[in-house]
Fold each of these.
Amino acid sequence: MNEYDSDRIFDLAKKINYQKTEKLEEADCYVLNTCHIREKATEKVYHDIGRVKKKFRNKKKPIIIVAGCVAQAEGDVLLKKEKYIDALVGPQSYHQLNEIISKIEKDFGRINFTEFEVIEKFDSLNVVESSKNNISAYLTIQEGCDKFCKFCVVPYTRGAEFSRSINEIVSECKHLVDSGSREITLLGQNVNAYSFKGKKLSNLINEISKIKDLKRIRYTTSHPIDFSNDLIEIYKNSEKLMPLIHLPVQSGSDKILQSMNRKHTIKDYLNLIYKLKKTNPAIKFSSDFIIGYPGETDGDFNDTLTLLKEVGFINSYSFIFSPRPGTPAAKMKLVDNKLAKERLLVFQKKANEIKINYRKSLYNKKVCVLFENQTKNKNKFFGRDEYLNSVIVDSSYDLKGKIKETIISKANQNTLFGEIYQKKMNNIFAA
Ligand code: SAM
Ligand code: SF4
């Protein structure tokens, strides 16, 4: 979502004649868009500003704006501690960016814009055209969260759940497709909680599926308790909806899930996986895990390992619990850090093994790849298959934007390599 927000921040700044530059020492304005989900986020801001200061030693200072969830969470503390910052702008206030820049240019003093004007934000952004022409593009449809998992800052930094109107989303989607996008990933902190005037995520997916040149649809991130039957059902027939579902579970232990306030059990989660697989056997899953959550015993951790093996997640994102200031879990007794690190290593080793075996199972198999760009090596093209695996092939033809059947021949840690599948025509002899 921060990537989407950063693009929109740039689209806004373009309207007041700012351009992107790779030459950092030439920039007139820096916008640091930040994430606060895990530790070290604030330290990173100070560190990045330190690097800018170094570049501008003995030169006129550039405008420094800190955007995103660190700005929202830290507010005035950040302004007090780092005098080099000119303004803070929260994730729901960045539509005011140009006004902020112009105030700073006119020397109006330091600014803290961290309100929750989410409707106003999208109203303002709707009239600013996106300048991105990525083959695969992001589109925010929902923001914020009402679930209050005990470890998470999102409800405090992004605010309450909010869904954009279907018309706005369809129009932004058409614009992206007209600009060259062939795949859209619908974004939300709880994307499947999307609800606008009785329309749900399934209705929205059906609606954008009608856009002719849009070839692939994905969405992230889903919460298991919002996976309604209508969403499961569309996996029966939707040809554009990709069969990879990112479904964070966090832990394999019911005790820990309850203590996290996740609102479901492992049985509920496995039931959901079963229903989805029954609806469409091609579906595979990826997930997020928090290791070393307060109160996690060896037994709880083993339950997480059991779940990992049982579902066979093709991608698992795992992190040690990070106490976030202001969240209820931050006050709970931490698991010993050395033990948490050991568990993380065990978990990641197993998760990696599952991933490698899955990747090996693809050798000599055909996958469908949407090619996104040419690599630095001119004859190689990069794309992703239906399950978001990165694939590289050799081609002397421009494959950008095309979907091609590809035979996988080898793999390394992060990438699959293959060849474009060529149908062999049998010679036909006339009798
Ligand atoms: N809304 C999604 C859900 O409920 O599954 C997840 C969104 S959250 C922004 C992304 C991921 O960050 C979570 O799934 C969780 O694994 C991780 N995360 C959030 N807070 C964390 C914390 N305090 N410590 C470690 N990981 C955390
Ligand atoms: Fe955070 Fe997701 Fe829980 Fe909301 S549902 S509080 S975004 S982890």
Amino acid sequence: MGKLILSHVAKRFGKVEAVKDLSLTVENGELLTVVGPSGCGKTTLLRMIAGFILPDGGSISLNGRVLVDPMSRAFPLMPEERDVGMVFQSYAVWPHMNVSENVGYPLKVRKMGKAETKEKVSATLKTVHLDGYENRMAHELSGGQQQRVALARALIMKPDLLLLDEPLSNLDAALREEMRSEIKEIQRELGISIINVTHDQTEAMTMSDKVAVMDQGSLIQFDTPYNLYEDPENSFVAKFIGSANIIPAARSSEAIDQDGMIRVTIEGDYTLKVPHKEGGKEGLLAVRSHHIQPHEGSALRGTITGKLYHGNQTEYQVQLKGGTMLRVSVPGSYTGNPGESMGMEITKAVWLDN
Ligand code: ATP
């Protein structure tokens, strides 16, 4: 329904480059999640797509229709002309209207007849599981229900693209989980494309077809959740997605074995094999905490500085000789304590140049 193409989009506010030369494509029916530290440009990006902010450069098109292109003479399309719906973090449900009036408002503005409006409101309320709530006022709704009203109001115009700016962040954990699966269901049912902004890692990993990781206005990696986790582009992505351990490393030789692996060394004398990548002699290894396990006879040793019990696992903080701090997640019954030495084996790692 909605193929979105962003090409070299840029936006500056005074000295701040909020979005820098950003290009990406969201395919029909895909759910893209945008993540990144606070202030990296996520909301600015969404607002440019919605039409609330004009980019300084680049172009945005949806289904072959140019929404905005500052280089061309064409006027940018107004937000209401874009076939784009948006739901914000604040519920933005009008308190003086009941649920039906809130959801039907966009149709009223377009002067749609009463009978047709009623039919569409009723169908949309079913989609967000709010049928039966037509006459409730906003203050009689829970936070989750109010957010469903905002979602229904965005969906009633049958947009090709739905933009979600942290709509679940004010909800409690159980409700967030429920809304996540409902949004996925809406995506499948309506075949709609969705861009979701979130600070929630689980949400990004579990809901998305693709994830865009941004930092300081730039797109750092645009990939599937699997590839982001398994093959991060650099140490920023490795730390931001799943907080990997980052360990300075050196290649021990240029030889690539038959499985496409190369040998690298960390801490001077511990060697391991990692998938080959082009790059320099010195680099970094990204290692997930559960890919390091206690191993008494290992050449890789460190001192335990902390221990956190999580129930299904225990997380140890371990300091290597060179000063690097590691997080090691141990399932079951390893009995090390702070102050003691721990030998470790790394079972999987990814080479990074920076
Ligand atoms: P958060 O996760 O905190 O919501 P974000 O990634 O959505 O942040 P943006 O709101 O897009 O970030 O802001 C990107 C940068 O642009 C920030 O440095 C912000 O201060 C700046 N910025 C955003 N809007 C404006 C504005 N209207 N005027 C001036 N600077 C702005």
